[in-house]
Amino acid sequence: MGFSPWLVFLISVLVQTSAILADTDPRDSSALTAIADNWKNKPSNWNGNDPCRDKWVGIICTGNRVTSVRLSSFGLSGTLSGDIQSLSELVYLDLSYNKDLGGPLPAIIGSLSNLQNLILVGCTFSGEIPKELGQLSNLIFLSLNSNKFSGSIPATLGNLSKLYWFDLADNKLTGELPIFDGTNLGLDNLTNTKHFHFGINQLSGPIPSQIFSSYMKLIHVLLDNNNFSGSIPPTLGLLSTLEVLRFDNNPQLNGQVPSNINNLTKLAELHLENSQLTGPLPDLTGMSALSFVDMSNNSFNASDVPSWFTTLPSLTSLFLENLKIGGQLPQALFSLPAVQTLRLRGNRFNGTLTIGSDFSTQLQLIDLRDNQISSITVGGSQYSNTLILVGNPICVPGSNDKYCVAPGQSNPTAPPYSTARNCSALPTPCLSNQLLSPSCICAVPYRGTLFFRSPSFSDLTSPTTFVTLEQDMETKFQKLNVPVGSIAIHDPFFDSNNNLQMSLELFPSGKVQFSEQDISDVGFMLSNQTYKPPSTFGPYYFIGQQYSFTNDLAVPSQSKKTNRLPLIVGASAGGAVLAVAVIAIAIFISRRKRTPKRTEDRSQSFVSWDMKSTSASTAPQLRGARTFSFDELRKITNNFSEANDIGNGGYGKVYRGTLPSGQLVAVKRSQQGSLQGSLEFRTEIELLSRVHHRNVVSLVGFCLDQDEQILVYEYVPNGTLKESLTGKSGVRLDWRRRLRVVLGAAKGVAYLHELADPPIVHRDIKSSNVLLDERLNAKVSDFGLSKPLGEDGRGQVTTQVKGTMGYLDPEYYMTQQLTGKSDVYSFGVLMLEVATARKPLERGRYIVREVKAAVDRSKDLYGLHELLDPALGAALAGLEQYVDLALRCVEEAGADRPSMGEVVGEIERMVKMAGGPGPDSASESMSYASRTPRHPYGGDSPFDYSGGGMPSTRVEPK
Ligand SMILES: *[C@@H]1O[C@H](CO)[C@@H](O)[C@H](O)[C@H]1NC(C)=O
Ligand SMILES: *[C@@H]1O[C@H](CO)[C@@H](O)[C@H](O)[C@H]1NC(C)=O
Ligand SMILES: *[C@@H]1O[C@H](CO)[C@@H](O)[C@H](O)[C@H]1NC(C)=O
Ligand SMILES: *[C@@H]1O[C@H](CO)[C@@H](O)[C@H](O)[C@H]1NC(C)=O
Questions:
Q1: pLDDT interval class at 320 (50, 70, 90)
Q2: What contacts 707, CB < 8 A, 6 or more positions away?
Q3: Is there a contact between 192 and 162 (Cβ–Cβ < 8 Å)?
Q4: Hey, which of 197-206, 354-363, 649-658, 749-758 has the most confident mean pLDDT?
Q5: What is the residue with the minimal CA distance to atom 3 of ligand 4?
Q6: Whole-model pTM?
């Protein structure tokens, strides 16, 4: 068919015009380029000048404007250029966790009037916080914590009337908290802000009474670790929404605690420790939500045990050290239902200590050092956790009662928690940049430190606390559609700022390494608090470490072109000619799509899938597979999000999705406008819906909506055999496992040849078409090139040669006669690949020729030591038989090769000989170094593909 001349003309108009209309607004592309010029370690695909079209990592566009820049944990170093001002549509800016990114924050940021989230956690920005930030009238989320900002808090920030989250903690800020002075607004005008996080600075002056009013909606007020002076304003009692209050570690804070503090009935955490507060001990009666109270080291004028001690139903932790409180401790204190820790040293508690028999099961520590307790009665079921009475009259010199022995360390309660990894014995350690995940896979985790600023508990001895947190994170991250598989936490402890710190490792799911985009996504979920921990953990922040992307794994393809038609249409308001051209071409393309049968490909297909045909024998047989609407698939893959991208195939992308039933699926979407794939697509649907076997990947359904070609398969989590052989997937395959995988694949192919109806030649057996499930059970996949054999199942068909170089049967190539023995040849190549972990054809070296030349049957292991994959390990029972079988499979003449059924029988014997694990042994996995061949292959490729008769071969995706 020919192109009509006018169409050719229109196409050329379109091509030329679209070259002028770059997809990204030039202001944005030049701004991003200028910003990145100031940085080291910019994302690897930040090249060219079209960030929106080329999907630069960390960039999100709306239309042709950049609306989001998210680059946490990239190891960016340098400064933030004032060119940021040109990104005038920017809504989200997150540059968190780049500890070498710093210098002054450009004041011109204040001109980004659309900015909603400004997140710069854990960088090294310094100098004053620009007062121009007060112009960001749409700002909702401001996190400048853990930087080196100095100077005072600009009063202009009082203009941020939409602000919800306000975090300036852990800087070097000085001066007073700005408040409304009759002209200028102040923090007291932030009536929509719920979080004031200003701890760990050098702020000073009195805490202004105006910032607490009934107009405020504050739930967290964190003013700890500063230099505030004066007293706590009585307006505190008006903050009826308050849940967490920290005034601790302000050495100059003095005066009485306002008596209306017990109006704060939602308050769960109260920290007043380490100041100079005076007057009576505050009365906390009626504060039924209160779980953590620390008022240690103040100058209260405490006399007797306060009555509220035994009235707080939620209390877990009572820290009242060095307050000179006197009297007998009520027994009821120990039986408060939630109580875990009582730190009461340095008081004047006297008389008899009675713990009783109904003490709280959670009680872990009673520290009563340096009091005046003279005797003790412990109830029926003996309290056996830590009790310290050193420095009381009861501990006379020479007493060897357990409670009279001073504990060695100041914090006797916390053995470090660490995520359990119950992997069976692992022969080799992970690669140096990898760690063993809780699910026993070697992978590169995203690491960092998690800080909880005010948890409601104090007992760190209970592992369930952290198991709960890990599980919560795993579930919520999965819901957020990022590929986080498992979470490991270790070494929680309360640091000197009274924050609960712990190390966090997030492991990727279904791969060894996060992509750059994954880190951008996951970092943002922690930096903007999208992830919310269980409420007992309270407010948190995270400081991520730089993620080490290794070049070969993490680089998303740069050349992926999105379907540009909608964008061009959007950009061509003025161009009527262009619009006509677009419509004409769209019609042209959709026509072509609907009539693929007219191409010569039709004769290649055994599936006569002609919609017009009424013959029952040619109609597609779709047993088991269902159709999906495009919208349904869009939903289950979160709009085909990058986060769900699990691979690039020859003709499109594969996404992970979760069906409403909870079933995980792999969704393979062919490149739009790719006519090439349409035949393979239909072939695969028809064929896969006929075959059902444990070693053949199963088709869940497909979608033909809206000119899309999408196949939905069962999800096979451990990637391809090829990835395992190269070490990319983190699944370690020793010899016995490899035998099992090869056996599974052989059974799959044998099923196609001998049991499928009609019998099928796969035509593309190779390691990247063998998938491994969670139990390392092999599944043959990709039926795009497959063909049925003749009616009797044993015939042969003449067909244009297709396959993949290196695996292709030379006899089939020369005769164009396709039989099952062609698959046997490819399978033999695959067997050799499995034993050597070398590509079949690499730099002109052909594995079949290499092995044939090296085999010396008089020697141990046939003298193949140099060729074998060192990661196979030492136990190689049956290897000689395996090599013999592989070499029979790659005999020149198909007639000399075994059938797949025979191959299965022989490998089954080898598996028995090798004493392999049972068929369902769990996948305990380890990674190993992918290696480069020590000896280069000799000789040339067996096929000379240059010149005329070049067969149609598949190009392997990189
Ligand atoms: C700012 O807050 C003060 C109270 O502290 C109030 O009197 C004043 O009206 C507020 N101004 C605006 C513009 O909201
Ligand atoms: C206590 O809180 C309520 C709101 O819950 C408020 O109306 C009242 O004024 C507060 N009382 C004191 C003494 O601050
Ligand atoms: C305990 O101390 C209180 C005052 O702090 C005092 O009234 C009481 O007599 C003391 N009891 C004993 C047994 O020393
Ligand atoms: C985090 O960012 C998302 C936008 O992707 C926003 O919808 C969400 O509300 C933000 N979370 C918080 C706590 O602000």
A1: very high
A2: 590, 593, 672
A3: yes
A4: 197-206
A5: 530
A6: 0.60
Phi-psi region of 64 (alpha: psi -120 to 50; beta: other; left: phi over 0): alpha
Q: List, by residue range, all CATH 3.30.200.20 domains of the chain.
A: 612-714
Distance (angstroms) between ligand 3 centre and the Cα of 297 equals 22
Which residues does a 6 A CB cutoff place in the pocket of ligand 3? 304, 326-327, 348, 350-351
Catalytic residue list contains 764: yes
Q: Are 430 and 505 in contact, with CB atoms under 8 Å apart? A: no
Amino acid at 512: V
CATH 3.80.10.10 at 1-172, yes or no: yes
Q: pLDDT per residue over 721-759, tens digit each?
A: 998 888 777 777 889 889 999 999 999 999 999 888 788
User: For 528-549, what is each residue's pLDDT tens digit?
Assistant: 999 999 999 999 999 999 998 8
DSSP element (H, E) containing 760:
strand 760-761
Site to probe by mutation for ligand 2, drawn from 213, 260, 288 as the one with most ligand atoms within 8 Å of Cβ, is 260
Sign of CA dihedral 182, 185, 191, 194: negative
In the chain, which residues fall in CATH 1.10.510.10?
A: 721-938
pLDDT exceeds cutoff 60 at 561 = no
User: 612-714 adopts what CATH topology?
Assistant: Phosphorylase Kinase; domain 1 (3.30.200)
Q: Pick the ligand that lies closest to the CA of residue 158.
A: 1
- What is the structure's pLDDT at 893? 92
CATH class, domain 721-938, is mainly alpha
Q: Identify the band that residue 948 occupies on the pLDDT scale cut at 50, 70 and 90.
A: very low
Pick the residue whose CA is nearest to atom 14 on ligand 2: 237
Residue nearest to atom 7 of ligand 2 (CA): 238
**Binding site residue list for ATP:** 668
What are 153's two structure tokens?
Answer: 């808090």
> What residue ranges of the chain are covered by domains with CATH 3.80.10.10?
1-172
Pick the CATH number of 435-549 from 3.30.1490, 1.25.40, 3.30.70, 1.10.357: 3.30.70
Portions of the chain given CATH number 3.30.70: 435-549
- The ligand placed nearest to the CA atom of residue 261 is 2
